[in-house]
Amino acid sequence: MADITAAMVKDLREKTGVGMMDCKAALAATNGDMDAAIDWLRAKGLAKAAKKSTRVAAEGLVGIATSGTKGAAVEVNSETDFVARNELFQAMVAQISKLALAADGDLEKLKTAHYPGSQHAVAEHVAEMVATIGENMTVRRTAALSVKDGVVASYIHNQAAPGMGKIGVLVALESTGNKDELAGFGRLLAMHVAATNPVSMDLTGVPAETLAREKAILEEKNAGKPANVMEKIVASGLKTYAKENCLLEQAYVHDGAKTVTQAIAEAGNKAGAAVKLTGYVRMQLGEGIEKGGGDDFASEVAKLAG
Description:
It is a single chain. This protein has helices spanning about 5-15, 20-30, 35-45, 45-50, 80-85, 85-105, 105-110, 120-135, 180-195, 210-220, 225-245, 260-270, 295-305, and strands at about 60-65, 70-80, 135-145, 150-160, 165-175, 275-285. By secondary structure, it is of the alpha+beta class. Among the domains are: about 5-50, Helicase, Ruva Protein, domain 3 (Orthogonal Bundle), CATH 1.10.8; about 60-200 and about 280-285 and about 295-300, 2-Layer Sandwich (Tetrahydropterin Synthase, Chain A), CATH 3.30.479.20. Strands 1, 2, 3, 4, 5 and 6 form a six-stranded antiparallel sheet that branches. It is globular.
């Protein structure tokens, strides 16, 4: 029997997109013959999943899981919204969301975590689901927040099932105050984040290229002004930018008369201890995915119907 090396397994995985353990099994079953191993995987229905891996998967669900002082978000994509409404798919997203708590924001750790009730890791289980359901699926990203004392609260927008929907938000509130008060306020603040989609917590967190672009626009609009005047114009313009785009400076959507910073201070008074927002995560389904070009399942159906 041929020795099955890690390089052989890696090569087969790259050629087929199938999970590592299945690639190893295929090579073992075919005495290390690469072409035969590919046929073996096709016969098992696993290489079918690999063929679908080139299709754009921009639908799906964002899942959220929280446990006291920890919270995690994960985006699991499918090709169509139809599959996102599938109970099997939703059950998978719910399970992966729970596993994301332990992965602590590490995508590779999440993908290699054992999927409960199976002999496979998360990535291999997803590949099996691709073969079963017939659409490309991917665990695209994950993020996590935690606090030493306080709560990590959440909100799901366009909820498709408990804990999953089109937009998922986590907010981390550090405080020794009443946990029920913190959880209630945290949910309202998470709703604010879902609605306003802030760029960052404050101006210091805005990407340097974004600030440079804003400054350049202000300078171009006010070309010819003296340097001292331009400096004040830029400072004022960035302050306005912060009020519109930085979470702590934004007008609180539940009470436009106060900023988010003021709302947090008020929440601290109600909770009986100061509250500090230590972080937030806003994950929107499909953001950043190029949907144009290439065939996908939905367009194939449209072609057939047309």
